[in-house]
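Researcher: We're teaching a course module on how sequence relates to structure. For the next exercise, students receive a sequence and then see the predicted structure as tokens, so they can try to spot secondary structure elements on their own. Here is the exercise chain.
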Amino acid sequence: MKYIKTIMILGVFFAFPVINSQDNSDEIEEVVTVSAKQPVPIDEVVGSVAVISQDEIEARLVSDVSQLLENTIGITVPKDISSGRSRNSDVVIRGVGNNRVNIFIDGFRTGDAYQSGGYGKDLVDTELLKRVEILKGPSSSLYGSDGLAGTIAYTTKDASDIADESNPYLSATLSSQDVNSQEKVTVLGAMVRNNLEALVQLSSREMNEMEVHDSATETLNPMDGEQESILAKLKLSLNNGSSINITFDNQELDSEYNLLTDLGSGFSAANMQVENVSSSLGLDNLTRERFSITYEFSGKNSLFDSGVIRSFSQTTDQRTTTSKNKAVMVMPAFGPPIPSFVPTSEASDYDFNQEVSGFSLEMIKVIGNHNIVYGMESETAEYSRNNDKTEVNLITGAVNKTLANTLYPHKRFPDSEVTREAIFINDRIYLNDKTTAVLGARYDSYDQKAKTDALHARNNIFGHEVKPRSDSQVSMKVGLIRDISEDMSLFLQYAEGYRNPNFDEAYNTYTNLAQMYTIIPNPDITAETSEGFEVGLRGSLSNTSWSLAYYKNDYKDFIAYEYLFPPIQGVLQVQYQNLGSVETDGIEFESKTVFNDNLSASFGISLNDGKEDDGYLDSLSPDHAKISLSWISDSGRLRWNTVSTLMESSRSNLSPVCGRSGVCSPAQGTAGRVTLDTYLNFDLTEKVNIKFGVRNLTDKKYWDYPTIAGQAAGTADEYLMPGRNMSFSIRYSL
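Model: And here is the predicted structure for the students to work with:
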């Protein structure tokens, strides 16, 4: 595997085969909206974007966000099993994640992720999507807070995509995957009648077990899960050329875990007592519900040519519960110091709730050589986090609500409210036939406040004051693209990003007397910021299109824990502070070659580097390449594609992993690898479609580096990626 980087680089040359040129004049020019909030041809975008089409989503039998983004250069989705649950915890763009990536669905921001015992931003059913657009690099000039590393825009299906006046659409799809033993049923119906369009999609998925490579020696926590998804859309076209779009989107995921990793005897750090756990059951629920109304309008006047008004309300609830049967060691109050074990039940319930509502206005105006997008946004979000835990003595029936010197129920942070207001403008200026400039600016204001109550006071035993805070941020973007020949263009850009401190970082006042630490709020905490520089080339050579980009991103004021001295009454103080700075840079190359009407290939490579205050940035994925080959039959009924991933090994001199005690251990690394995925897509009849896929065809045993980054050496087998696994689907359409 030491030659893997050489293989990657050689792939660049193979991406430019010497073959006859083809006439591609009939091809439809692809446009994207995520880069400018208006349609822009992809070869005229300033900066790096990636697009995942519905055809690709369906061809690869994608079932979750990890599979959705797995073939996108520079993007990773780490897995988290630290709580005994298996979840997609984050989305990382060019080495930076943890709520520093904006994610939108149909133009609406998804819920925040609460990482401690909660879910990441895996809040969308990929079956609902027709398109994904990814803007790499700082994007706050368009999208505000959380656009520190980039923005991902999901777009769900519309009725007009699959139906017309004379042909309503109805289909049923049955699919299965070896990974987690998933089985899914999807029913999709759509119709277009006069000025009315309607779409309804229902999905139901069942999952069993946590899947890793078959050679794993450790027993994994069995899991049973169900996911239900509903997407309902109604579009009314008005006589004046405007339209009203009403959308209801509901996602619900229930998971049940047999937490075998909790079983056995030992000292419980959470409860500060010796326990023998005989059974442990985890019951988790994630619910996201969105209702939105969108009004699209047009009109040639001095203010706008077209525009859109969006209004929405969204509720996200993340609930994690655990029930245990155990025996607790108790020392007698009198007599000989001979311990006894008391049969006990324990129930814990952690609930994170977020309610968001808001509206936005975007307008497009063309004035001479200026294509201008401008508008405003207003949003209010309310957050709450309730923790509860109970022990019951199964002999006496006595109820204990104080565990590890902590009284339950309580709140780790007070109920919080954030109000966001913003105005923005983005101007695309056509300077001449060869040169286009982009200027963008956005002003954001944030008002945060917290409401303390008795449940919060139980964790705020030292009486730390929770103060309201206000902040504002101006984000800029400047870019230029110039045609330097008929077949090549040069682009460069400077873009800014920021992330406002969230509810947890601003107001956490949790105190753990058993482990002798307290988290105190920081009234002076400020936003994280980033500056991104990018220069690139795009072009075509014969029947090959390609792009090459160099980027450099500087991040400042990263928020992290800091230990403060002296302690309060012997209790160590911990506070979120602006501590870190991060620098990343890299080169990304992508190409696509169309050999003939049947055969095409694509190639992508990412070479990156990064550092933080303490040394190398460990969250960066190793250098990697993606090579894909696609074939379609003359009739178009049979399609085949395969994707190979070439991953370099992680650095040998990773930063050591240090705990709160100051003891450090070597970090876990990963070896280089080559994996292969292959897929078949066959139209059996006009109404029946069959798909079949095999991931990790060679049954390679490996760990995914972003998942284990920052962990001590000796990573357990439950972090292994799945071995050879198959997917299948059959769809019947009327």
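Model: If you want an answer key for the exercise: The chain has seven helices and 43 strands. Residues 1-10, 12-27 have pLDDT under 50 and may be disordered.
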